[in-house]
Amino acid sequence: EKGTYPHYMLKEIDEQPLAIRNIITKYKDENDNIKLDEDIREAMKDTDRIYIIACGTSYNAGLVGKQLIENIAEVPVEVHIASEFLYNMPLVSKNPLFIFISQSGETADSRGVLVNVKKKGFKSLTITNVPGSTLSREADYTLHTHAGPEIAVASTKAYTAQMAVLTLLAVDTAQAKGMKLDFNPIQELGIVATAMESMIDQKEMIEGVARNFLSVTRNAFFIGRGVDYYVCLEGALKLKEISYIQAEGFAGGELKHGTIALIEKGTPVIALATQKHVNGSIRSNVQEVVARGASPCIISLAGLEEEGDTIVLDEVHEHLTPLASVVPLQLLAYYAALHRECDVDKPRNLAKSVTVE
Ligand code: M6R
Known about the structure:
46% of the residues lie in helices and 16% in strands. By secondary structure, it is of the alpha/beta class. A 5-stranded parallel β-sheet has the order 2-1-3-4-5, sandwiched between helices. It has a 5-stranded parallel β-sheet with strand order 7-6-8-9-10, sandwiched between helices. Strand 4, helix 7 and strand 5 form a beta-alpha-beta unit. Helix 2 packs parallel to helix 8, helix 3 packs across helix 8 and helix 4 runs parallel beside helix 8. Bound molecules: 5-amino-5-deoxy-1-O-phosphono-D-mannitol (M6R). The site of 5-amino-5-deoxy-1-O-phosphono-D-mannitol has 17 residues, from helix 4 and helix 11.
């Protein structure tokens, strides 16, 4: 039930810190260590390459998952859109592990790939919010995202929960491989939950930003580098699906290869600046678009902020910035849709789970 909330989407955005804390509780043992199923651990340890298969927001979580698994556990990962993989299967490695990410566990495109993968005898793991779902039943292993039912068509808490579980999977794999980690996931995810809360507490300010930047525009661009780029893809998807604003996420460095031609006076450009090693470059990308008349909205991380930034996130570990930085993007999309009088929870032409190909 949505209780006193005007929309499920707002309720589900608000539930994210709790969902993250819940995941920590579900996956830690009595000694405060992360412990996943032995079978999953073995499969992750044995594989020479992981293939993440998903659609929409779950695909965007997969992109961040690649970064997490490669950085923390040093296992190579490819991320594929299910509907593409189905008809254009790439060459796969000798000992692949397929990870399906799906909030509903019922997405037909992803299931199509799972059926093919099983025929070939490859191992599969489903990360889902619905444990009894088709993808969960048909894969060899399941990890539950424990986010609670997600009702709004626009996925929010499932996305952050997927990334939290992918973090734990990466850490568990690194431990299984005997790697030394200077990253405490329980502590760092706790810090993330608190950073999410402080962003959620600023929703009135974010509503004002949405009003200024997004209430009349026809289009909007999101730019970022590294994982910020992946979060930009998610921010753009959120905005387009519920507010019908044409929105695209771009890698900052690609602007000059074409996209910058779209910038006009007043074009909203939302820039993410949470990555220390590319902070200078994304800042110069912002200057390039501002010089062509764009209205910038800069979302940065405490410690990297500069005067004039619109929203500053509390500091979180560099591996985990997507979990915090997506929150203002979700809120921007929510308020933009509200100001434009769109049906926030049930956008036109969309279904919560896409069970046909
Ligand atoms: O249930 P799934 O995670 O498999 O669904 C995948 C996509 O259909 C879903 O993420 C969709 O893109 C959402 N409407 C995004 O908000």
